Every structure is written in structure tokens, then in C-alpha cells.
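Order emerges. One example.
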Amino acid sequence: MNEEILSLYRAYNVAMAADDTTALDRLLAPDFTLTHMTGYVQPRAEWLGELQRGTMRYFSSAEDHVAVTATDDGWRVVGQNRVVASIHGSGKYEWPLNTDMMVQRINGDLQIMGGRRDDLLTAKVKATPMFHVKH
């Protein structure tokens, strides 16, 4: 099962780096939210819209480490990637990101329920929850 979860995580990163909102639409649960390193909790439709408009552009995502842990209602995936992105008109930068997400099987399909991204330099000192799941 962990291989299936890893494949989902990797498909998410490939789709994000390609700004492939069609693929992301299939991978993300309807109530998905992404909590950015700023603490902003961004709804699914808003994030996908920013990708479509190009206000958030991702160019690549290189995986350094990823771990999958089973939970009572799904899986927790924690991965460290080096992501090259341009956000809201900023320059193109490489960010060492820690992504922490919850995955559940919904109607037979694996879906990403929510995620949180932190800069690896600050991820270890965050006291806030590492993921946000809207029920």
C-alpha cells in the first residue's frame, strides 16, 4: 500500500511542477486546502485558479526524502522536496520545502485531503498542525 501512496505523492509533485490542473483536480479531494509557509490556508479552487492564471508557477520538484505512515483513517505523507517556483510575481527561486499531507481512500480512489508546506529551515520549529483537513 505504501507504494500506491508514494505514487500519489509523486504524481502530485509532477502535476504541480507542470502546472497540470487537470491532473491535480483528480488527485485533490473536493475540500482540499493547502496551508502555505506563510500560514495562509488556501482553498483548492483558489490554488488551482492561481496555477491556471500563472500567478503561482512551479517549474520543478526534486524529491529528497518521503515517508508514509498509516493513520486511523488514511495515511500521512511527509516529504522534503526542492521546488523551483515563482509566486505572485517573485523571481524564480528554489525552495527547500517540507510537505505534510493527509491521504484517504474516498469512494475507492486515493485523494489528498489537505497539505501544509513549510520552508525546511523553519519546519522543525513550527508548533502549528502540519496539515489541515476540513470535515
